[in-house]
Amino acid sequence: MALAIAAAFPAAQTFAQSQSMTTAASVIVTAGRLEQAAKDVLADNVVISAEDIAKSGAATIVDLLQQQRGIEISRNGGAGSNASVFIRGGNNSQNVVLVDGVRVGSATTGGATWATIPLQLIDHIEIVYGPLSSLYGADAMGGVIQIFTKKTAGALAPTASLGVGSYGARQLQTGISGSISDKLSFSLNAAHTETEGFSVTKPAAGIYSYNADKDGHKMDSLHAKVNLEVAKGYDVGASVMQSRLNAMFDAGPSYDDRNVQNLETLALYGKGKISDTWTSSLQISQSGDQGYTDASYGKSQIDTRQELISFQNNVAIGKDVLQVIAERREEKVYATTKVLNGKRKTDSLAGSYIFKQDAHLASASLRYDHSSIYGNNTTGSIAYGYKMSDALRVNASYGTSFRAPTFNELYYPGYGIASNKPEKAKNAEIGLYYEQGDAQLSAVYYRNKATDLLVSTNVCPVEQSTHPYGCAYNVNQATMSGLTIGGSAVVAGVTLRGSVDIQNPKDDTTGLQLARRAKKHGSLAAEYSIEKAKFGVETVLSGQRFDDVANKKVLPGYGLLNLYGSYQLSKDVQVLARWNNALNKDYELAKNYATAGSNLFLGLNYGFK
Fold this sequence. Notes:
By secondary structure, the protein is mainly beta. It is built from 5 helices and 34 strands. The chain has a single domain (about 5-605), classed as TonB-dependent receptor, beta-barrel domain (Maltoporin, Chain A, Beta Barrel), CATH 2.40.170.20.
């Protein structure tokens, strides 16, 4: 049976993808939890290829995501600082983030701890927009970002890269990957990054926050995975990743404040071709998000852990695929604040059907989640696509989603309320997609209506005696609607790509704009190749935002100009240079937090294709 319908769980999917993919965008895994030809995927998506990452010169994954359509970021300083990623106007906690199929994130704050994800170990990234709770469960309201680490397929080969840049930036990566035999393949990679940095706060932050010292960071990371074909059609494998981040921040003038954060992932999987039409897979995975803070206001430790057992079966019915998924997820918290300590379990059952006949494409999915803490939730989605020609397709979809309350929103003293319910949302969208040769264009209109949003209230509706300063409570409604347009083309030898997002991320309860989200943002880039050299220019644009829910603290709009170039010294050796924020724009992603000014990066890559 072709791999395109030989579904596996995400870790197994990564193996299958590494064996069959010709380019990063030829198939998409994340949208349906199985490999699908990109032209048949009904969910709106973006793929960031290995080449995109190699030439980006980006210091962090957040810098890379900032250039993608439908995505905005906020960050409390430079590389290594706390950051949030907003997909289509949704909160950072309303996204699911996977690393080789292993779910990562904090059970106390919600969402991924982006600063701990090592960009140097990533092969490519898939971003799928819109609600995917019917496939991935809680928190997939705005979308799913899946990060794929270095691949195991191909001839055994080493890779290495090094780079230096402004603010004392230094990067080093080395690894080896490939097939040892027809049945055994592996990859092993390590990376180190560090910066001397700059003061993450500005004087306007005040005497209780501002510190004029440099706030640098260091991060060491390691990743390994192995795949073994035990019999024809049957594979087993494992993957592990660990990163340790030591980052300084400001909490006043008289103390060297710092965060030490660890990210750990582990996955064991097996998949087998039960028959010509039936593929089954099992994955057991675990991730840890551990943070230690040493600051002027005290020391604290918070460790969260997620454990997941997933069993997935795909049955091919002609060109169609029937999928059945059973999962158990357990979240655990160990914290200095003892009342946060605890665990919760979620048992899930999901099914989907993918239909393909002539010019018609369709999919439907339904999922039931039962939590030991917040009860039952049922989500579903349905999508239809019609190919008007080989190049042009129109899609329409509707889906429901939910976000689980975090441990902080449930139990944090003076803030959490144990009876808080999940947030819920309903999303409808319609899209037009064109692809012909080197030209691609997509335009998608979406409307995501969220209810029971958990926000910080000044007056707590319940338990006022124990929450005199307010609490987290299900009181808000919001509508994230907008038009997202993206495209690329080759004109007179110049590769052009760009995107624009026109959106209205609105708090329906107050009528105000959601914090740190703009009504307009976009990007534009051009690249020219001549023999062994490439030259490019990029712009990142954002409109005005507000730093607070009351829309009193303005974050002005900004435009960034980045320049880059690369030269292929030999088949395996490439040198690259990048000039970020070339116009030295002074801008803010969070009020009174600094961002990098004009800065340079020089790098050397060996073995990257």
